[in-house]
From TrEMBL:
PROSITE patterns for the chain: HTH_TETR_2
Species this chain originates from: Nocardioides iriomotensis
Record flagged with keyword Iron-sulfur: no
DNA-binding region, residue intervals: 35-54
Molecular-function annotations in GO: DNA-binding transcription factor activity; transcription cis-regulatory region binding
Name of this protein: TetR/AcrR family transcriptional regulator
HTH tetR-type domain boundaries: 12-72
Length: 199
């Protein structure tokens, strides 16, 4: 009986695997500090072979930032669209919890989003989208103040930045698969943000 020898050749990767590895490298080395050659080496491919998987490094960055922003935008849309159910306070609290869920589910992409500085058109577009979300969230805070659910002595845009600054800080210490369940984490962030720590 003849023994079959495994064929050697270029490893095959789907688009998702290439994107995941690229995001890992961008977070580890910085986007500007990562070359297409680095991504190819990470995947065990030649530099020319990587172009069979992706058109450019910038394309990978765009996909990663869209992944993070699309999830956040969907949560904000649900909370701020005319006719949304619940009071502004309830919708604001819910969008904070949903944002924690998005961050946990897409932590590497959100981490990358929080590190962009506007050094390219792709980064500038991501920053523009983030500002639009911030504006809409500040409007939701303003609605909650107007309905009497939130204190009125702190500017709504500052409240929004503080709330989502707390959510964004999770990228610094949260570890996927850790001891804290994502739903419990979302409820805890919401409880601290809206009810404080006083007994």
């Amino acid at each position: 009986m003849e023994e079959t020898v495994p064929r050697r050749g270029r490893p095959g990767y789907d688009q998702e695997t290439v994107l995941r590895r690229a995001i890992e490298l961008f977070n580890r080395q910085g986007y500007d500090g990562t070359s297409v050659g680095d991504i190819a080496r990470e995947l065990g491919l030649s530099k020319s072979a990587i172009y069979h998987h992706v058109p450019s490094k910038e394309h990978l960055l765009s996909q990663a930032l869209d992944e993070a922003l699309d999830g956040l935008a969907a949560a904000v849309d649900r909370a701020t669209t005319a006719g949304s159910d619940g009071s502004a306070y309830e919708r604001l609290r819910h969008v904070v919890e949903e944002s924690v869920g998005v961050l946990v589910a897409h932590q590497p992409a959100v981490t990358l989003l929080l590190r962009v500085r506007g050094n390219s058109d792709v980064e500038l577009d991501a920053l523009r989208r983030r500002r639009e979300l911030d504006t809409r969230l500040a409007g939701l805070v303003r609605e909650a103040v107007d309905e009497g659910s939130l204190r009125d002595d702190v500017a709504p845009d500052l409240v929004s930045r503080l709330l989502f600054g707390m959510v964004n800080s999770l990228v610094e210490w949260h570890r996927p698969g850790g001891l804290v369940d994502p739903q419990q984490l979302a409820r805890s962030v919401s409880a601290v943000a809206f009810e404080g720590l006083a007994r």
